[in-house]
Amino acid sequence: AVDILTYVAWKLSGLPHNRVIGSGTNLDSSRFRFIMSQRVKVAPNSCHGWIIGEHGDTSVPVWSGVNIAGVRLRDINPHIGTDNDKENWKDVHNQVVQSAYEVIKLKGYTSWAIGLSVGTLAQAILRNGGNIHAVSTLVKGQHGIDKEVFLSLPCVLGENGVTHIVKQPLTDEEVAMLQKSAKLMDEVQSNLKMCIW
User: What are the chain's domains?
Assistant: First the structure.
């Protein structure tokens, strides 16, 4: 929903696309690194990995880039995150996706984690620090996406919003999953356009 709402906010605001961002998979990426860190027993800030695409069930874990201290886990386990992975790293992504559902089931809503995440994004923008976060941004032209949709990619944030989108090298499978997310978002947006425009 955050990606769709970001698109709607952009359309209604008239602002340049780089000035309208959604929290996207920023929190998902943080959870991904945290769960990964628990598994390998090192600090979360030593674990590097990204969740991109849609915030939700079809989010895309970028297994090809996951690393700890510069060591790519795919070099150690070529099947990481796949169905052939004997270490079942795919479960890390499943835990990320399920974590919000667990909080909602127990509490009825989410608030603290997303509040901290949005606070971090606001700080990055207000301090013009050039920090990189996975936020929902216009992805048309990225990774072969030709639709006008908002999805999460690692973005450099500054006082003008998104200053750059990081060009991650993705595998063909990761690109296909990202494009599938884009297609899904475009379909939902097409239905919205009939209702509100």
Answer: 2-196 (3.90.110.10)
